[in-house]
Amino acid sequence: MRRLNQRLNQLAENEKNKREETSRFLSMLGHELKTPLAVIRALLANKKITPAMIEMANKSISEIDDVVSTSQMAEKVESDTVQVNITQCDLNDMLESLTEKHHLQGSVKLSPHTSPTINSDLILLNIILSNLIENAAKYGAGDKPIEIELSDTEERDTVILSVANDVRNDNWPDPDRLFDKYHRDRYAHRVTGSGLGLYLVKGFSGLLGIDIEYQPTKTQAVFRLYIPKEFSAK
Known about the structure:
Oligomer: single chain
Strand content: 15-25%
Structural class: alpha+beta
C-alpha cells in the first residue's frame, strides 16, 4: 500500500509539473507574441503600405518565427531527441558569418585564432554561438562593441571562446537563473524573446561536451565556452 501511495503521489507531482510547464509556456507565448502581432495588425489596417512598413512587418514575422522555432528546439532538448552529426567546423568562418547575419559588422571586436578548426556538430554549434551573440547584441550597451575572443588551453585539446558585452546601467542578469527555461530578466522585456536562448545554449553545449561558464567582470557580462577540438560521445 505504501508503494502504491508513493507511486500515486509521484504521478500527481508529475502532472502538476506538466501543468505548470504548460502554463509558463502559454504565458511566454501570450506575452512575447503580442507586440509583433500588434505591429502586423496595425500595418495591415493601413491603406497605403510603404517599403518601410513591409520591412517592419517582415521583422515582426521573423520575431514570431524565432519564438516558435526556439520553442520547438527546446522541446527536442527536453525529450532528448536532438541528433548530433559531427563534421569539421571552422570557428573563425562561423563567427564572421554570424556577425554578418545579425548585421553586427563594426559592432563586434573579433580576436581570431590561428587554428580554429574543430570536430563538432555544425548546426548545434552555430545555434549556440548565434544565441550568445544575439543575447549580447540585445542586452549589451549599444555604444560598446561585443568582444569575441578565441584561444587555446594549455593542454591544446580545447578551444576557449568568450563572448563579452558591456552592461547597461544596473541591468545585470541573475547568475542563478541565467540558463533557466523561460527565464527573462526584467530589463529583457523591451525586446521580443522566448526566454529559451541560454537554455538551449546550455542544453546543446552539454550534448557536444562543451563546458560553459558565466564569468562577469566589473563592467561586462562574459560567457566562456570550453570547446573540445575532438568530439567524444558520452
